[in-house]
Design a protein that fits this description.
The structure is a single chain. The protein has helices spanning 26-30, 58-70, 81-101, 114-124, 139-142, 164-170, 193-202, 222-225, 250-255, 290-306, 308-327, 356-367, 379-385, 401-422; strands spanning 2-3, 39-40, 43-44, 46-47, 108-111, 130-134, 151-154, 175-181, 206-210, 229-233, 244-248, 266-270, 273-276, 333-335, 346-350, 369-370, 372-374, 390-394. With 423 residues, the chain is of the alpha/beta class. The protein has 2 domains: 2-48 and 307-422, Aspartate Aminotransferase, domain 1; 60-305, Aspartate Aminotransferase, domain 2 (3-Layer(aba) Sandwich). Helix 7 (193-202) links the parallel strand 8 (175-181) and strand 9. The longest helix is centred in the C-terminal third of the chain and has 22 residues, at 401-422. The two termini are 29 Å apart.
Length: 423
């Protein structure tokens, strides 16, 4: 939906990067992100692409480096000192993630990324019935099921949020699994996941939450949510690339058979048969991304030291200011709801007549502002709502109100130049 109205927030020109209205100490946080020292053609780097991947703080970089410089070894298969140390670091990372989500460590499977977690559920879930996904789901949720199961799509409201009555209709007959994105990566809409999970359970279906865009930004408690599965990627929450998490309820993971088999996922192997490892090891065949898991553990420590509630408040403040700033620009069309309470950490927009990739390139080349452009791996959502490719500015704990002001100023200049050229 194209929304063009004043947003009801009292955002004023911010005073400094060091304090925000929520009292969040952004300057202190920014000092932990070495890449933010970088200048591009004499301009400070503005990173607004955290929904694609986040920047990394020094403690995460150091944890990964320390593994390579002090404890580099394979895990769970050596009795020597380094292997024992590496195994302990890897297992400790799992405990940290479990605590972060209020889950048991046996319920935390390390995978490469959210995409692998989603594919794992698709290939290993042994339940008959259709799979229900929303039109707002990421391609990584939709594509694994194509040609494997009946995939029923749930509609969205005009602002891109999940349509609960469409969900109610879609799950009526023989549904095995309902997939819901907690936060839409394309429009930043926060979906009513609790209601969706309850509806799924009412008809005996399982509920999978795609937490890729929510876990990095808000407190997540899988017990309170009541979901059966939750997936997310480490690289969007300050961790390294190549590490992600699948949370699955213990009974479900126990009844599922692994789709990757090989070393380390078995207790014993004989000619023609084997005994799988206990949870979660049976799903982690082969040498895993050890340093990735350790880095993710360090990212969890870092996020917890700041507090997920504080991060959520800060993101809320940035999003509210961005909505006000961008929706106030004459030619810019902001997509999704304008109420900041219904959004998390990103704003997608377009400038009619200027292609999204062209605008993103201009913002990068002329202003050192990094944004994502395109369909954001949610092309069916764009098609359903008639939204063209967009530019998405996405925020995280290290962003400031000033940076959003700079984006607004850059867009004003682009529009002015573009209007002059059109005359
Ligand atoms: C909502 C959502 N789900 C799934 C994914 C896939 O994540 P990854 O590419 O890390 O597997 C993304 C990535 O952008 C996402 O935003």
């Amino acid at each position: 939906m194209v929304v063009k109205a004043q947003c009801d927030v009292a955002a004023q020109a911010p005073q400094s990067a060091e304090s925000t209205r929520t009292g969040f100490d952004v300057a202190r946080i920014r000092a932990d992100f070495p890449i933010l020292q970088r200048e591009v053609d004499g301009k400070p780097l503005t990173y607004f692409d955290s929904a694609a991947t986040s920047l990394k703080p020094t403690p995460v970089i150091e944890a990964v480096t320390r593994f390579y410089t002090e404890s580099c070894a394979n895990i769970h298969r050596g009795v020597h000192l380094l292997s024992m140390e590496a195994s302990e670091l890897y297992d400790e990372a799992r405990r940290k993630v479990a605590r972060f989500l209020n889950a048991d460590e046996e319920e935390i499977v390390f995978v490469r990324n959210a995409t692998e977690g989603l594919n794992l559920v698709c290939h290993c879930l042994n339940r008959k019935g259709a799979v229900v996904a929303t039109l707002a789901d990421h391609h990584s949720v939709q594509l694994p099921w194509l040609e494997r199961r009946e995939l029923r799509y749930v509609g969205v409201e005009r602002d891109g949020s999940l349509n609960l009555s469409s969900l109610r209709k879609a799950i009526r007959r023989g549904t095995a699994l309902v997939c819901v994105p907690h936060v839409s990566n394309a429009l930043g809409v926060i979906n009513p996941v609790e209601e969706a999970i309850a509806l799924a359970h009412d008809v005996g279906a399982l509920a999978l939450v795609d937490g890729s865009q929510s876990v990095p930004h808000m407190p997540t408690d899988v017990q309170a949510l009541g979901c059966d599965f939750l997936v997310f990627s480490g690289h969007k929450m300050l961790g390294p690339s190549g590490i992600g998490v699948l949370f699955g309820r213990r009974e479900l993971l126990e009844e599922m058979q692994p789709f990757l088999r090989g070393g380390d996922m078995n207790k014993e192997v004989h000619k023609g048969w084997y005994v799988p490892e206990e949870l979660p090891g049976k799903f982690e065949a082969g040498t895993p991304n050890i340093e990735g898991a350790i880095g993710l553990g360090a990212a969890v420590d870092y996020l917890e030291s700041i507090g997920m509630e504080n991060i959520e408040d800060h993101s809320g403040e940035l999003t509210a200011f961005a909505l006000q700033e961008l929706s106030g620009l004459e030619k810019i069309r902001v997509h999704g709801p304008l109420d900041p309470v219904r959004r998390s950490s990103s704003v997608a927009f377009d400038l009619p007549g200027l292609e999204a990739h062209g605008l993103a390139k201009m913002l990068s080349n002329r202003y050192a502002i990094m944004v994502r452009s395109g369909y954001h791996c949610a092309q069916p959502l764009h098609e359903e709502l008639g939204i063209p490719q967009t530019v998405r500015a996405s925020f995280y704990l290290y962003n400031t109100l000033e940076e959003i002001g700079a984006l607004g100023a850059a867009l004003r200049q682009v529009m002015a130049a573009y209007t002059r050229a059109a005359v």
